[in-house]
């Protein structure tokens, strides 16, 4: 493939992946020792690209778009059927750098991030409309870093990677910080839990000196 993979999500039972590239989304189907990419729906928006995404509680893919050069608040959120049969633009403000989403199924909430604006939004998850009542939830300052990838953890806290913050932070539903995990990388980008004690965090080396640590994937034990 000649484009970045911007998001990869395990899909099905055969080791396949649901992926977004810069200009399309589709399936990476396991084929022998490798994968074969099958494009489902192109973005068809000149100057835009996909960034982050996740599956919602009803099995639809949410994918955020943004300007390739990150120079304007023109990114939007889309909701796709995973077989490519439908897509819908969600009712959200325009974003500069889209990250997330994270779904709190227990409380029917969805979280979305505009990393450039350092804002996490929260709204009500709706199976039909996707999201209603979306509003700014947490605004961060320059010294905090930029909220990037996020996930609801097994503890039902919102875990967020902070680009240029060198940490992960976990928030309760009031927006209070419950945990902060300091990292040896400046630009953590995304989080995945292996279980309730171990998580993995990816990071970016982009714009940083190569010291052998930046850009690595970290395995973090939260408790014994």
Automatic annotation (TrEMBL):
<dbReference type="InterPro" id="IPR013658">
    <property type="entry name" value="SGL"/>
</dbReference>
<comment type="similarity">
    <text>Belongs to the SMP-30/CGR1 family.</text>
</comment>
<dbReference type="InterPro" id="IPR005511">
    <property type="entry name" value="SMP-30"/>
</dbReference>
<feature type="binding site">
    <location>
        <position position="49"/>
    </location>
    <ligand>
        <name>substrate</name>
    </ligand>
</feature>
<feature type="binding site">
    <location>
        <position position="69"/>
    </location>
    <ligand>
        <name>substrate</name>
    </ligand>
</feature>
<keyword id="KW-0862">Zinc</keyword>
<feature type="binding site">
    <location>
        <position position="148"/>
    </location>
    <ligand>
        <name>a divalent metal cation</name>
    </ligand>
</feature>
<dbReference type="Pfam" id="PF08450">
    <property type="entry name" value="SGL"/>
</dbReference>
<keyword id="KW-0479">Metal-binding</keyword>
<protein>
    <recommendedName>
        <fullName>SMP-30/Gluconolactonase/LRE-like region domain-containing protein</fullName>
    </recommendedName>
</protein>
<dbReference type="GO" id="GO:0004341">
    <property type="term" value="F:gluconolactonase activity"/>
</dbReference>
<dbReference type="GO" id="GO:0005509">
    <property type="term" value="F:calcium ion binding"/>
</dbReference>
<dbReference type="InterPro" id="IPR011042">
    <property type="entry name" value="6-blade_b-propeller_TolB-like"/>
</dbReference>
<dbReference type="GO" id="GO:0019853">
    <property type="term" value="P:L-ascorbic acid biosynthetic process"/>
</dbReference>
<feature type="active site" description="Proton donor/acceptor">
    <location>
        <position position="148"/>
    </location>
</feature>
<feature type="domain" description="SMP-30/Gluconolactonase/LRE-like region">
    <location>
        <begin position="13"/>
        <end position="205"/>
    </location>
</feature>
<feature type="binding site">
    <location>
        <position position="99"/>
    </location>
    <ligand>
        <name>a divalent metal cation</name>
    </ligand>
</feature>
<feature type="binding site">
    <location>
        <position position="51"/>
    </location>
    <ligand>
        <name>substrate</name>
    </ligand>
</feature>
